[in-house]
Structures are given as C-alpha cells and as structure tokens.
Amino acid sequence: MDEFEALGVQVIGASVDKPAANERWAQKHGLRMPLISDPGEHTVAAAFGVARPLVGVAKRTTWLIDPDGTLRRIYPKVTPKGHAADVLAAVKEIWG
Fold it and tell me: Is 50 left (phi over 0), alpha (psi -120 to 50) or beta?
C-alpha cells in the first residue's frame, strides 16, 4: 500500500459483505484502505457487471481509474498472488 500511496494512488475495496464483516476482514489482514459495502441487492456490483446473484458474491475485479476519472485498465478474474505488483507496474507505466 505504501508504494501506491507514494504515487498518489488511492486504493478502495468493495465487497458485497456487510460493513461489520468488511471491518473484521480488514483488521485480520491489516488493511488500511477504505472498504465499501454493497450488501443486500448488490446494486454497485450489478452496476459494474460483477454481481453473481445466484451465489451471493461478486467477481473479484480491479479497475484502474486515473485522476481524471478515465478507466485505464480492467483486471477481471483477480487472483491475489502477484496482483498488487501487476497493478503497481501498470500505474507506473501510465503515470510515468
């Protein structure tokens, strides 16, 4: 996270879990980023096309949005191993 912050990148997590579950998860993993909760109807997940209503979860996806609000990259099917490094490399490439 420190490397992202040093580049002026804000990382925000989103989950279909309730706020209390997100808070426990963040504490367990030592995360400092804000987490958005989208429980119930999964309105945000549906708007971004990642809702999986039959199983009650959302697809792990990362969107890289630049400071002007332009979507620069989409990472569908995120797997945790190596993902942060891949996104950080893209940030450095895009932002120079």
Answer: alpha
Quick one: pLDDT at residue 29? 87
Q: What is the pTM of this model?
A: 0.78
Query: DSSP of 36-54, one letter per residue?
Result: EE--TT-HHHHHTT-EETT
Within 13 A of 44's CA, how many CA atoms are on the CB side? 11
**CATH assignment of 2-95?**
3.40.30.10
- pLDDT tens digits, one per residue of 18-51: 999 999 999 998 888 899 999 988 999 999 999 9
